[in-house]
Amino acid sequence: MLVQVALPVPLYRVFDYSLPAETSVSPHVLIPQIGSRVEVSFGRQTLIGIVIAHISEADSSVPLNKLKPINQCLDAEPILEGSMLKLALWLARYYHYPLGDVLAVILPSLVRQGKPLDLLITHWRILPHVTDDDFHANAKKQKQQFDMLKLHGEHGASEDVLLLEGMERNFLKTLEDKGLIERYIQPKQASSPVTLAKMPLDLNDEQQLAVNAIVAAHDATRYTGFLLNGITGSGKTEVYLQAMQAVLEAGKQVLILVPEIGLTPQTRARFASRFAAHIVLLHSGMNNTHRLQGWQDCRTGHAQIIIGTRSAVLYPFADLGLIIVDEAHDGSYKQQDTLRYHAADVALYRGSQYRIPVVLGTATPSLEHLKLVDDGKLVEYQLLTRPGNAKPASMQLIDARLQSTHQQTTNDGTRYDTGLTDALIGAIRQTLEAGDQVLIFLNRRGYAPVLLCEACGWQADCPRCDAHLTVHYNSQTQRRHYANNAYLKCHHCDWQAYIPTVCPDCGSQNLDAKGMGTTRLSENLHAIFANPQTSKVLYPIIQIDRDTTRRKDSWENIYQRINEGKPAILVGTQMVAKGHHFPNVTLVCLPNADRGFLSADFRSPEHTAQLMIQVAGRAGRGDKAGRVLIQTLQPDNELLLKLVKDGYLSFARELLQERKMMGLPPHSHAALIRCEGKTLAATTQALKDAIAILPNAHKLAVLGPIDAPMSKKNSRYHVQLLLLGKDRRHLHHVLSQWWQPVLALPSAKYLKLTLDIDPVGW
Ligand code: ADP
Ligand code: ZN
Ligand code: ZN
Questions:
Q1: Spacing, Cα 512 to ligand 2 middle (Å)
Q2: Which of 208, 226, 432, 651 satisfies CB 3.0 to 4.6 Å to 203 for a cystine?
């Protein structure tokens, strides 16, 4: 017998190995089971792979004397059971990605390294007889570390947790040597059945219908994809919770996918307050040990509720009963490198694999999901009202061409334009005076997006990218003197530079920061609403973007300040659009969110509208009514008017109709080939050569090669080629014949070529 092994190498094939001679002599030597790990020699390397089949010698294309035996089998039991191998094979086929590499994406790194799965997690506890008196007065640091452990009580805590809290490994050792603390291994106990920690709410009719349908699919062991299409604040979470209850009570696991990690602490709290259950969080910030621990908890069934970001959809589950994809339209569900999967699509596949319901919840369904509803592949449930008294926010346009913008004077007497219309400022003041909070959305961090020479028109550009450098500026007070504490930064490659004192082209000193980022907006608002010279009451301005939330606890701190509920102005990028609850925000302002309607990318209107509606949904979520003001320079833009007047759904339906007329996704199926290299000529040539070897009879539209939207990035050139097909199967058929020869093209040799199936942007 031979084993067929998938190895983590970028080759589209599996490898045959024989078994060591001992296996025929001694029955005690393991015969590697399908789905278990083996260590093998591969060229000069030693690799760990997964056995995916047992075959006979006759079935191998390798002559018997060329076959190498495996070095050793690492698992007595399969670590990937049948359905996980099937998933891996499906991913490899659908995304045209090598199976070994797919497995490398699926498996936690400790598993890939061949570590044993049964993690023995070290816990530390204080020995019973030890008291504070056992410490010398001058052993301050020891005592301080001891006190940290003491906070955890008699059972102590796991080493991970202690190290995370700031304990130092060598002190643990010292305290152990002194006979003050001991380590022990806590045996895993089976999870007890899930119970309700809090009573469910009474559902309204719309919610009840959705819950009934999901539970019915679960009870019938029937795969059904649901689109839970509910406006923000309509109580989608309550639908999730009550559907989950039935599934958890049946002893099954529930997987909940959320867009980003910033959301998980809150999300966890919402589920933990309803269910007494073993909840596991999975996200990219976990260290390797935590990841393996989470992986094992899911695989063994120890985890009952699993809340995770995108990659959680690739975990193994002992007994999954329901998958929920919250904010299913969110762009973060699409993986943008290596295996470019979409977590919502994988969730639907897994649902059909296990014959369980999958719920895609969102207030702004993607056109792809609406199309699946039209095709009868998703069952739609709508939630059109907010429970209780909460009213959906009203939307209103402010014509920035007709309104004067507010001027402000600095200490040295220069006047400058705040970019905010008087109408907007009036509404902000009114809201603050009523004791409420205001959220201003500006999807651009930094101080200003452009540094411009007023004399000759020179702009500061990134030497490595096709992009302007953003002016970053830290001080809240020294406007205009930004040269002192400002710098230029590229948001695409992180290149940084000092601000030049004179224009490098013409020598003029007249350099000016143009446009507005969150820092500048915050500063302008500060001058109006938090300056004792202009404002009787000083309102806090809270800036929320990648720059202000970089530190680990900063988001928590900001969140706490907001939740105190005092009047304040929040200035945020798209970070604030995702599912957060700001119950005291009653006014949301979008000073220039409509730019996206003019972009060249055909998906831009869809994504812009989703973002606008999501941000707008932050208004009036408590019992207070909300208002949304959109300040625009193009108030006649038809798309914008449609969105404001008729709402997202009818806007999206119109876009879908347009896509149909133009034969664009989701009314066709796309594959995007990206090519990256050191010169534009070589990258373009490789794609031309690729087109030349397309199978003759293909029925695809071939668009390109064309420069990528940002053709130069980090000193590398990007060119792309788009294939569009009416029929998905035909597209995949062509790709399966064509893609591997493309990778083998001589002109592709020193270039990076990638294939993106169902790309979300190009
Ligand atoms: P969504 O996720 O759709 O934006 P949420 O699930 O956050 O909305 O619900 C918004 C608010 O409505 C929450 O405070 C929630 O507790 C409340 N809510 C949801 N369903 C009900 C209900 N059936 N009765 C009363 N309040 C509800
Ligand atoms: Zn100049
Ligand atoms: Zn750059």
A1: 11
A2: 208
